[in-house]
Amino acid sequence: MSTIGFIGLGIMGSPMAVNLARAGHTVRGWNRSPGRAAALVAAGGQEAASIADAVRGADVVITMVPASPQVEAVAYGPDGILAHAAPGTLFIDHSSITPQTSVDLAAAAADKGVRVLDAPVSGGEAGAVEGVLSIMVGGAAEDFAAARPLFDAVGTTVVHCGPHGAGQTVKAANQLIVAVSLQAVAEAVVFLEKSGVDLDAALEVLGGGLAGSTVLTRKRANFRDRDFTPGFKLELHHKDMGIVTDAARAAGVPLPVGAVAAQLIASAVARGDGGLDHSGLLRGVELLSGG
Amino acid sequence: MSTIGFIGLGIMGSPMAVNLARAGHTVRGWNRSPGRAAALVAAGGQEAASIADAVRGADVVITMVPASPQVEAVAYGPDGILAHAAPGTLFIDHSSITPQTSVDLAAAAADKGVRVLDAPVSGGEAGAVEGVLSIMVGGAAEDFAAARPLFDAVGTTVVHCGPHGAGQTVKAANQLIVAVSLQAVAEAVVFLEKSGVDLDAALEVLGGGLAGSTVLTRKRANFRDRDFTPGFKLELHHKDMGIVTDAARAAGVPLPVGAVAAQLIASAVARGDGGLDHSGLLRGVELLSGG
Questions:
Q1: Measured between CA atoms, how close is B40 to chain A, in angstroms?
Q2: Chain A contacts of B134, Cβ < 8 Å?
Q3: Sign (positive/negative) of CA torsion B43, B46, B49, B54?
Q4: What pLDDT sits at residue A141?
Q5: pLDDT in tens, B113-159
Q6: Would the CB atoms of A191 and B247 count as touching at under 8 Å?
Q7: How far is B78 from chain A (nearest CA, A)?
Q8: Short-list A74, A71, A64, A58, CA closest to A25
Q9: Which of B80, B89, B78, B96 is nearest to B7 (CA)?
Q10: Which terminus has fewer CB within 10 Å in chain B: N or C?
Q11: DSSP A210-269
Q12: Which runs of E-coded beta strand occur in B131-287?
């Protein structure tokens, strides 16, 4: 069993920390804004007073925060993780951030003898609560092997994708495909409806062929009923499209349909739809079609 | 059992005619270029000497030809189907053509007392041979009901989508989603590879989440191995993107990612890749990324 300092008890982090505590690990949780540790404490964990307090004596530190700036804020500086973590500590970052930030973090941590894995997840709040997340991991193979029992406590599909940053790269590719798929289905739905077709019949037959996708299955009711309760918010997907756009530029790979999807998500956020589920891309297609 | 005049014994039409003959129907097949009726004759069907010969005495006429001009060529004129079909004949067009051509054909046929269903299919040559096509049908409900035993002889997912043209509209939406999905996966694959990620590991985890799709499953080996043996040719998908582009313009629905995918397919055809499987869109992304 591990002693874990868990940083970031938000919508995703809190249930992940709970599942680690339930699996028998000693979990000390910290969150920037207070009052987020109740579920963890109820599951047998503890609330830490500071990052230093969470990290002290831990053999594993886990972070789950919104984006690159927050990872840098909790990792670096005199009050940060690297200032307090003992040499040999395993630092697992579940946040979805730019691959380059993960690479830089791993290098800075190595100077302190701390081993880092980037391990972004997909599956949303429901996946976090149920402990069935998909986890895409970058870093050294031996560190992946050491972290495996912890991953298995929060997820079911756990894959080592390559060196530092590779987990973030795969998560970025995931968000690219999801964004484009949502936009394609949104365009198809508006086209079908404006053409006078029975939408339910159409989506049934589309789902059975090469056009079938998890987006079509899981988001079908959202599209049909215009129910854009998140789910996964457009403003978060907007952040992720920034990551994949930057990472692909760095890799020298233009993304023609990905770039258009990124612009349309940016437009949705600019119009004030950032709080909607990402299936709310449908609204943009309707707007382009005269409302 | 029906007496069927079957026009168009190509890659798709021949196995469909065979399956109808095997189901016990009397099938007289005709093809513009000769020598295509061997499989049908072996299955108990007959070769017709002309469209008039195929249509004479038939209670059902079925067409399966490449595009709108070929449908118009076999339907209209003194040698065409409408000139020879008896009033009351059911005319099932399995071709993938513009919705407007289907609407116009239904109107012209109604003047002769001939009832038309547009019934484009998806599932490819393998689906045609195995009799497991998806069939998207537009036209009158009572004609759909009458045609149902014939559809069941060639397909497994058979859906009435709405009035004349609705089948074509759904097929167009299908091709839109498939094209965009293929392009999205192609962009993700090149991005992953150029980023140094283990592609097989990445596609495994992507397939398990919201990015999962039939394209990702069925075309995975094509992308990974650069095996672009068709399958479904880019030049045919190019034709279909023309259909969906025109139909969406007519419906007043812009298709932002669909339009980009259409341009990239047009580029592939212009570069001489039209004979490749549509997963060959990957080559375009590689070209944009420096080869």
A1: 27
A2: 205, 208-209
A3: negative
A4: 98
A5: 999 999 999 988 889 999 999 999 999 999 999 999 999 999 999 99
A6: yes
A7: 33
A8: A58
A9: B80
A10: C
A11: TT-BHHHHHSHHHHHHT----SSBHHHHHHHHHHHHHHHHHHT---HHHHHHHHHHHHHH
A12: 133-138, 155-162
List active site positions of A. Answer: 171
SS3 B201: helix
Distance from CA of A19 to the nearest CA of B (A): 20
The pLDDT of residue A238 is above 90: yes
Q: What is the pLDDT of residues B73-123, one digit of tens each?
A: 999 999 999 999 999 999 999 999 999 999 999 999 999 999 999 999 998
- Closest CA relative to residue B206, chosen from A81, A135, A225, A113: A135
Query: What distances in angstroms separate CA A52 from CA A7, A29, A60, A245, B65, one per listed residue?
Result: 11, 11, 13, 35, 72
Q: Which residue has the tokens 């010969």?
A: B53
Q: Do A255 and B169 touch (CB under 8 A)?
A: no
Q: Do B215 and A213 touch (CB under 8 A)?
A: yes
Asked if A264's CB is within 8 angstroms of B260's CB, the reply is: no
DSSP state of A77: S
Does residue B71 come out as left (phi exceeding 0), alpha (psi in the -120 to 50 range) or beta? alpha
Q: Which residues of B are catalytic?
A: 171
* Interface probe with A: pick from B132, B168, B180, B215, most Cβ of A within 10 Å: B180
**Nearest 5°: CA angle at B159, between A191 and B62?**
100
B113 DSSP assignment: T
Q: What integer best gives the mean pLDDT of chain B?
A: 97
Residue A98, SS3 per DSSP: coil
Check CB contact under 8 Å for B202 and A252: no
**Termini Cα distance of chain B:** 56
What is the model's pTM?
0.93
Q: Are strands A60-63 and A90-93 parallel, antiparallel or unpaired?
A: parallel
The phi and psi torsions of B78 (rounded to 5 degrees) equal -65, -25
Quick check: A255 and B218 CB within 8 A?
no
- pLDDT over 90 at B231, yes or no: no
Q: Using CB atoms, which residue from B173, B174, B198 is nearest to A161? A: B198
On chain B, the residues whose CB falls within 8 A of the CB of A191 are 169, 172-173, 176, 244, 247-248, 251, 253, 255
Q: For residue A92, what are the β-bridge partners?
A: A62, A117
